[in-house]
Design goal:
The complex is a heterodimer of chains A (122) and B (107). Chain A has 122 residues and is mainly beta. Chain A is built from no helices and eleven strands. The model of chain A has no long low-confidence stretch (mean pLDDT 96). Chain B has no helices and eleven strands. The chains are: A mainly beta (122), B mainly beta (107). At the A-B interface, strand 5, strand 9 and strand 10 of A face strand 5 and strand 10 of B.
Amino acid sequence: QVQLVESGGGVVQPGRSLTLSCAASGFTFSSYAMHWVRQAPGKGLEWVAVISHDGSKRYYADSVKGRFTISRDNSKNTLNVQMNSLRPEDTAVYYCARDGALLTYNYYMDVWGIGTAVTVSS
Amino acid sequence: EIVLTQSPATLSLSPGERATLSCRASQSVSRYLAWYQQKPGQAPRLLIYDAPNRATGIPARFSASGSGTDFTLTISSLEPEDFAVYYCQQRSNWPPTFGPGTKVDFK
């Protein structure tokens, strides 16, 4: 079945880096744009970044621009986000999610992973 | 950035009752609005996109209406599994933004 599984979360000190991964299965990964969306503890959802189906285009929320880098490996059906210069306000559950449109974007997320928790604390 | 406001923050109802949730945008988003359901400890689930289209597998008791700045999600008769938090999200303007959520809980 269609599935996304995130990994790589943990506790990290402010200013350090962390890379999250998302393994996709059950669909043609290379045909879909992919997103990262985060949710701070007890809070709502915040869109973080998107990458086009072929990896040629990437867009970021202002809150992470210049610090986070989204990437994908279509040969391995894997989505990544490298997070640098982490701040306490980056503490959240990070979800990878599939864009609902084929070969383009519609910025709706129709398949979500279970999430991986990141805590930024000294 | 478009700000979405949801009301009420909490809706206390019983199974079988009708739930009406509101989402208001700070400027027009045309019909480019989605609704998601999130249960505790779970990922969000897409219910409605480009209001009023139901996502795959979503029961007919979920319906949505609205355009411009005012939108409504209606659950015609609450099932026990419908008690959750509901978020609206717009894709009309970049960046995509979410509302703060409405929690539907047991009365």
